[in-house]
Amino acid sequence: MAFRILIAAGNPDYLASLRELTEAARAFLPINLEVVEARTLDETRRRLADSAPDALMADWSLVPEQTLAAVRALVAEQPELRVLLLLPDVRREYREAAWSAGACACVPRDRIDPEWLQAMLCVMNRAKEREARLRQRVA
């Protein structure tokens, strides 16, 4: 079973960096990772509806002054979505607010590396598998 992630960033150069980072993490993942990209909040919503990813890795640049509200709305629209939020260095104080908005994890964008991303994706994939088993037991 594949694990699908949508990477979203408003800055095209940073989106390309996230794509490279994701490819570097993919090389060591024990899971089949499918990647979709978005550059705007509207495109993110369309991709979430069309491809139903398991996770969203969103950079603060997606909607700079409204990122937390956007995360809150996206999680409300898709409660099973796991969100990794990349914070600008100057916004580290927003970690608690990001958690309250529905993000599973957040990290300053200057601290993200392939090993961290690999670990987050593995944890989220394992959670997805366990949630599926729990749903089968309940059904």
Question: How confident overall, as mean pLDDT?
Answer: 90
- Secondary-structure class: alpha/beta
The share of residues in extended strands comes to 15-25%
Main pleated sheet: 5 strands, parallel
Biggest sheet strand line-up: 2-1-3-4-5
Note the overall shape: globular
Estimated radius of gyration: 14 Å
Count of DSSP helices? 5
- How many strands in all? 5
Strand/helix succession: EHEHEHEHEH
Helix content: 40-55%
Unreliable spans are: none
Distance between the termini: 20 Å
Outline of this structure?
It is built from 5 helices and 5 strands.
List the helices and strands and how they pair.
Elements: E1 2-8, H1 12-26, E2 32-38, H2 41-51, E3 55-59, H3 67-77, E4 82-87, H4 95-101, E5 105-108, H5 114-138
Parallel strand pairs: 1-2, 1-3, 3-4, 4-5
Helix pairs in contact: 1-5, 3-4
3D architecture notes:
Helix 1 (12-26) packs across helix 5 and helix 3 (67-77) packs parallel to helix 4 (95-101). The protein contains 5 helices and 5 strands; from the N terminus they run βαβαβαβαβα. It has 139 residues and is α/β, with parallel strands linked by helices. The longest helix has 25 residues, at 114-138. Strands 2-1-3-4-5 form a 5-stranded parallel sheet, sandwiched between helices.
